[in-house]
Amino acid sequence: MTKIKYILVSHAIIARKKGVPITYTIIHLIHLYGAFIYGGFLFTDNLFMSKMAQSLAPEEAQKAREAIMKHVRKVVPPALIVTVLTGIYLFTHVFGEIGPDGMTRFQILLSIKAFLGLWLGIRGFNQVYLKIDPFLFKSHRFPFVLVIIIIALSQLMHV
C-alpha cells in the first residue's frame, strides 16, 4: 500500500470512529498538505534563500534564486489557492451557530485565522494570476509572519 493510501485509510478509520464524514477528513488532509507546501516555501525563502547573497556573488545568488523560483511558481501558488478553498469548506463545517452570548473563543480565533488566510489567498491570487503587485509588503516576510500567526491560532483554537 502506498504511503498516501495508507494515510488516507488510517484517517478514514479515525474519522469513522469520531463520526466525521470522510469527505471532511480528505478535504482537511488536502488543506493541511497545501498549507505545508505554502508555509514550507515561506519558511525556506525567509530563513535560507534570502541568505544566498551572503555566500554567493550577486549575479550567482540571483541566478540560483531564479532557478529555484522557476519550480516554486508551478507548485506554491496553486497550493495556496487549494489551501484557501479547502479552508473555506472547512470553515463552513466547523464554525457552528453563534449562541445568544455571542461567539465562542473557538469561533473568534477561527474567524481571525480565516480572515488572515483569505487575505493571503487574495494577495497571492492577485500577484500571481492577475499580475497585480501588492502596494505594501512586497517581500515574503509579512506572509511568513501571518503563516506563523495562523499556525499559532490553529493550535490555540482547541485549547
Task: Walk me through this protein's architecture.
There is one protein chain. The longest helix is centred in the middle third of the chain and has 37 residues, at 58-94. The chain has helices at 3-18, 22-47, 52-55, 58-94, 105-128, 141-156. The mean pLDDT is 86. With 159 residues, it is an all-alpha fold. It has one domain. It is globular and about 60 Å long. The protein is built from six helices and no strands.
Oligomer: single chain
**CA-based shape:** globular
Question: Count the helices. How many?
Answer: 6
User: Low-confidence segments, ≥5 residues, pLDDT <50?
Assistant: none
Largest sheet: none
Q: What integer value in Å does the Rg equal?
A: 18 Å
What brief labels describe this structure?
single chain; 159 residues; mainly alpha; 6 helices; 0% strand; globular
Give a quick precis of the structure.
The protein is mostly helical.
Secondary structure: elements and pairs:
Layout (H helix, E strand, L loop, with lengths): L2 H16 L3 H26 L4 H4 L2 H37 L10 H24 L12 H16 L3
